[in-house]
Design goal:
globular, mainly alpha, 6 helices
Length: 141
Amino acid sequence: MWSMIYPILIIVAANTIYNICAKSAPKEINSFAVLSITYLVAAVLSFIMFFVTAKGKNILTEFTKANWVPFVLGIVIVGLELGYILAYRNGWKMNTVSVTANITLAVVLIFVAFLFYKETLTVRQIIGVFVCAGGLALISL
């Protein structure tokens, strides 16, 4: 059971701190400078954690196992981070930007999972999409 709970706790804690940081980024600094510093810190931490957690400790061997995913993920993460920074800089409130983005994402992923991963699409999920749309309308008023 704990193996199902602790990843969600990490996501919630990290997302909470992330949104506080994204909203608190000084408006005077270029958004890409913020991202450059962010990813430099992330790269150093990831490099250190690789050596803490890896059994073989040969990072070059691990790099040879990579496919297209880490490269596209790097591009996508920059877009994700930039989107949040720009949303806050353009006036979105913390209590609506994350909810709006995550509800929209959840609805999109229901259909992506159905179309590309052959996951089931239930009546309850379809009703949930309409409930989410109603929720988005309510928080936008």
